[in-house]
Amino acid sequence: MSKKAGALAMIAAAGVSLTPIPAAARSAATTARQPAAHSRHLRRDLTALAWLVADVNSGKVLASKNPHRKLPPASTLKTLFAVTVLPKFSAKRVRQVTAADLSGLGSGSSVVGIRQGGRYTVADLWNGVFLRSGNDAVHVLAAMNGGWSTTAREMQQTAHRLGARDTTVKSPDGYDAPGQVSSAFDLTVFARAGLANEEFARYCSTTRAGFPAAGGGTAQLENTNRILVGSHGMPRYPGIIGVKNGYTSKAGNTLIAAARRNGHTLIATVLNPQSGEANGVYKEAGALLDWGFDHVAHSEPVGRSGRDDEEEEEEDF
């Protein structure tokens, strides 16, 4: 199979539209309500500050709560980083890491364990980004891309091109920074754009991968996305594709989860559940995906979040 044919096959398997994603429609004149038969089945105990569930194929938002509320995204912002930088470098290209590559790494950052002087392929670095949320891997890729500020500026341009108007990029790895925000809507846009790229789709769905170990040999990385791997008391979600999870003390737990069932591909984005449960973000994303798959064939976009005071305007991607 040719590389192009393989890409099309993977995209088709993920149910992703190949058409460009238009700018978000911000001026919807009416508010659409979900039929009562639909909204009564949507869990009323969802605690996230913002969430959204959407149909990837049509771009329709099926239901949402505060979809444009600007919140810290944590490592879910790495989806925008990947959409911006991933197409630029061959997976086989090798980088010997310098001290400058790793400078400015935030205190307490999640890391994959990249060493100064070590040699890593671009594929190694992306596995570090997607599986271990490695900010050190982001720093090296950003250095290859012209630097931290250049990469942040290009990410902002990508967000604008995709119609994502709620996002302000300050730190490409998602590390908390003053003024850095995104929204459930924008993060869903980034995930949808990413899934249209063969490499993004492969990396975000990878559960385990080898990684160069200190002193030679290969270490085994396991994805920290519990709903993808099935770990820490969470079962693997049926039909899960993957995408990206995140956490910082300011952002709380964040998650973009994509799954496919019965010819439909959905994305659920959940920002900062307030339940205090260790797996709360995964449980709420799973509940939204369950509801979405039950109703995607006959839902009216966009509906109610399950509470009468949280209706949202109709829009799509």
Question: What does it look like?
Answer:
It is a single chain. By secondary structure, the chain is an alpha+beta fold. It has a single domain, classed as DD-peptidase/beta-lactamase superfamily (Beta-lactamase), CATH 3.40.710. The chain is built from ten helices and nine strands. The strands form three sheets. Strands 2-1-9-8-7 form a five-stranded antiparallel sheet, sandwiched between helices. It has a two-stranded antiparallel sheet with strand order 3-4. Strand 1 and strand 2 (61-65) form a beta hairpin. Helix 1 packs across helix 8 and helix 3 (78-85) packs across helix 6. Residues 1-40 and 302-313 have low confidence and may be disordered.
What is the fourth-level CATH superfamily?
A: DD-peptidase/beta-lactamase superfamily
**How big is the Rg?**
19 Å
Note the overall shape. globular
* Mean pLDDT, all residues: 86
Report strand order across the widest sheet: 2-1-9-8-7
Structural domain count: 1
Head-to-tail CA distance between termini: 32 Å
Secondary-structure element string: HHEEHEEHHHHHEEHEEEH
- Total number of beta strands: 9
* Low-pLDDT residue spans: 1-40, 302-313
Query: What is the fold-level CATH name, i.e. the topology?
Result: Beta-lactamase
Count of helical regions:
10
Beta fraction of the residues? Answer: 15-25%
Major beta sheet, specifics? 5 strands, antiparallel
The level of helicity is: 25-40%
Q: What is the second-level CATH architecture?
A: 3-Layer(aba) Sandwich
